[in-house]
Amino acid sequence: MAGLPFDGIRVADFGWVITAPLATLWLATLGAEVIKIESKTHPDVIRAGMHGGIVPGPEPTWHRCGGFNSLNYSKYSCCLDLNQEEARTIGHEIVKKSDIVIEAFTTPIAKRFGLTYEQLKEIKPDVILVSCSSLGKTGPLQNVTGFGPANQAFAGLPSMTGYEGGTPMSMGGTWPDYICGVIMGYLAVSALYHRAKTGEGMHIDFSMAEAVMNMVPGQLLDFQMNGRVAVPMGNSDKTAVPHEVYPCLGEDKWVAIAVHDEVQWHAFCTASGHSEWLTDSRFATFEARMNNRKELDALVASWTATKTASEITETLQNVGVPAFPSVDSEELVNDPQLQHRSQFIELEQYEAGLRTHLGMQGVFGGFPERNYFATPIYDQDNYRVFQDLVGLSGEQIEALVAQGVIN
Asked: What average pLDDT score do residues 386-402 get?
């Protein structure tokens, strides 16, 4: 059986928050040696507890944040204060021995830390640098900062999200960052492929807002071709009706239903026990159902409210109608389908203890179990990196710790 795809690949990870860490998490679980270069002077806001719950324990909470631990397992941690020149020199030594460099700073900060492509290419000509920012490293807004909600706004998603006739709404928290992380990982792999063919390195300037904008190509094309500006529609859809999340039996329980064509509409009415809707003039055609969707939604809701979400799902799925419960986090963790596909793994971290994590997606054939091990605590791997990789002696490391270079 073959090894993992990225065995032998080393990544110098200067990223933080969500997008960059998720990109390197994909690489790490598929075999890459990811070295997370951190700083206690300016800790990752996720490690500090910005995202995800905190496991109870003593202060500080850096090692017990669910959000950080779920994004940074299978990596190694070393600490450098990149504000100091000697730390930047050591960082460059790590880069020399790496295949990919990841950074997520504004251009002035990246330049100060010695992490621009021009600076890194001087010390490693075939370096692959993947830079992550809101709007890219060039142009009049190159120094704008932001993550999830801001990137949604830059990309126009809130303008078409929300209740019909209402104000624009965010799609929730840091949602785009996770999609962007997957894209960023893909871009890094494409650069590896390019280097394998040509021997040349590459700088990939990745804009999160541009990636999010490309998730709504239909709306952009509709404006370009027809002059129509997309507006909030609630849960409605121009290609399906009924298309809504409906209430079910139980406290705050819901089911999503989408009926796309006449075959599904006939199956839906028959399976729900409401064949009379088939002959109701208000719902006789797709256009009629769309024009009277509020009345139809009220009738569907009166049916779904008498049954559980699982009953409705089974009934409709059996006749080919898309339907599924709107599940909460507890239901996700206990879902037998996800458990069967090994979507949850248990890792024991030094301070947080044994915890369940979301594993990386996809079931791969042809290579062994993914590379899973617990999220590192701060500077856990200082000696592994600075002594074994960079070549510093124990005495040198101790002196640099005393100076705050290695912090």
From this structure: 96
